[in-house]
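Quick one, T. Sequence first:
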Amino acid sequence: MFTNSTTKPLVIKILPLLLLVFCAQISGAQTVRTMTMTLDEDSPVFMLKEIGGIVTETNDTIKVQMVMPPDNRLKDYKEVDIQAGDIIKMANGKKIESVKALEELYNSLTVGEELKLGLIRGKEMKIAALVKGDESKMPGKMMVMTAGGPGGDISTGLMDAGLLLKVSEGNLIVEDVIEQIQIPFDGSAPERGDVILQLNNQAIGSSEKLDEAYGAIEIGQKIELKIQRDGKELTTTFVKPEARPLQKAVMKKGE
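C-alpha cells:
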C-alpha cells in the first residue's frame, strides 16, 4: 500500500536494501516516489522500466517484486497486466530460469519489439506483453541503489532540494542528485560524493540532526550548506522550496 506524506522525510534502515527512486510529473505536480525492499545480498535484480518493475531471483524463482501504479506510466503501458507477486516462467516462448536470462533476452530486443511473458499468478497462468520502450522518452527518472552494513542508511531529508543522501560513519554524503528536481543553488551546487558538513552553521552528522535543522526553517527562507569536496570546503545556498509529495512503500523480508 502507498501512503502520502509531505512533511516527514523518509529514513530507510532495512539492510541489505534496494532503493528505487522514481520522479515524475503527476497531475501537473512533480512527485517523488521511493520504494524499498530487502533482498539477499547476492540476489540478482532486473528493472522493467516501462512499468517501473523490479524483478528478482530467489531460490530459482523469478518474481516481480514491484511495479509502479498505472497512473505513473506512459499511456501505452497503463494496461500492461503485470503485477507484484507474479512469477515469470517464460519470455517470448523461451523458458526463463534466471534474471540474467530475462535481462539478456530483453536487451536483445530493439525498441518497438514485443516482450511477451508467461506468468504464474496464484494458481493461474497468465500471458502479459509490453513493447520495449525508448528509454530517452520515458517520463521521470528511476534509480536503484543498495545500502548495506553499519551506518549505511539512506536519508531523503533533502529530497525537496533534489539531494538523496547516504548516512555513513557519521557523515551525510550526497548519494545522488535528482535532475528532475530543479533547485537553483547560489555557489557550487552539490554533487554526488559531497559531504554535507553544516546547514545554516549547524553541524550535521546524522539524519536526525538534518531533519531537526531543516524542519525548523520556513519555506522561502535561505539555506546555507557547507560541503566538503575532494578535501576542500565549499559553501552553497538555496531557498527552501515547498514540500513535494513523497509517496513511499516499504516491503520487509518475509511480508
